[in-house]
Predict the 3D structure of the following.
Amino acid sequence: MLPVHLEMALATLGWETRDLSKKASVSLGTIGKFKRGETLKPTTIDALRAALEGAEIEFIPENGGGRGVRMLLDT
């Protein structure tokens, strides 16, 4: 997950950084570091990703058009 994917996921969910902070149990400062491109521990990134995936965000792998995110919807 890259900072741009985090921003896309937050926008998709309509979440603020503080929402993610609560859901992932990660400090606002740490999320800010990630958004600025600073390196975080893999376990911290896993916590962020897990919180987003728990909110129905799917991270799309590279498929020739680039990586991204999407929201899973019940049909």
The longest helix spans residues 42-54.
